[in-house]
Design brief:
Layout: H1 2-29, H2 35-47, H3 51-70, H4 76-95, H5 103-124, H6 133-145, H7 149-166, H8 173-202
């Protein structure tokens, strides 16, 4: 049992670290990010503080709000997810200090970020420890108002997108690509990671 728990924890942390790296790469590419990340970058541009710190601030707010909507106790493990993501994104953005100029380099960095993010999500899900605030909020809307997962995700992403545009966040063609391809990529990677985890646990 201890071995299984260690595997789950390692997958959870490694997945979040990779996800944050992918998000940082998409931000650096300046071709567009997901709606939530665009919102955090917009907040940084207008009000200061780091992207990761804004993620942590709003992550905490959404965790508390989700608990209220679902009328359940706050999942304190979700706070760990928020802090890991926020701190890691700031770390990667500090480490990746260059700003690409050539269009070809930007495209390459964006696609690398998209694949790394999707792969990271498929890994962190194997930990089965805690959802990200955005995913938790989606589930809360679904549970409280009887919406489908698709409708709940659309409402959450649409709200973030509106604020990201108002705050002049990095919203562009990459945002559309991320919106339509991140789900299928996660769906592609997830069953493969599940098989890998099951194989490791059975050894």
């Amino acid at each position: 049992m201890m071995y299984k728990a260690v595997i789950r924890i390692v997958m959870y942390i490694a997945g979040l670290v990779l996800q944050s790296l992918g998000l940082a790469l998409m931000i650096v590419s300046d071709l567009g990010t997901g709606p939530w990340d665009g919102f955090y970058v917009g907040m940084t541009r207008h009000f200061g503080l780091s992207v990761g710190l804004w993620l942590i601030i709003f992550g905490v707010i959404f965790i508390i709000l989700s608990s209220y909507l679902m009328k359940c106790r706050t999942d304190f493990l979700s706070f760990m997810t928020v802090f890991i993501l926020g701190l890691c994104i700031d770390f990667w953005l500090q480490l990746i200090s260059f700003q690409p100029v050539e269009a070809g380099v930007k495209v390459l960095i964006f696609w690398l970020g998209l694949f790394v993010t999707s792969f990271g999500i498929s890994i962190y899900l194997q930990g089965e420890i805690a959802l990200t605030p955005a995913d938790q909020f989606m589930m809360a809307l679904c549970d409280r108002f009887g919406l489908s997962l698709m409708a709940s995700k659309f409402l959450g992403d649409a709200g973030a997108l509106v604020f990201a545009v108002l705050l002049q966040g990095p919203i562009g063609l990459g945002t559309l690509i991320y919106t339509f391809l991140s789900g299928p990529l996660v769906q592609f990677f997830t069953p493969r990671m599940e098989r890998a985890v099951i194989t490791r646990i059975k050894k």
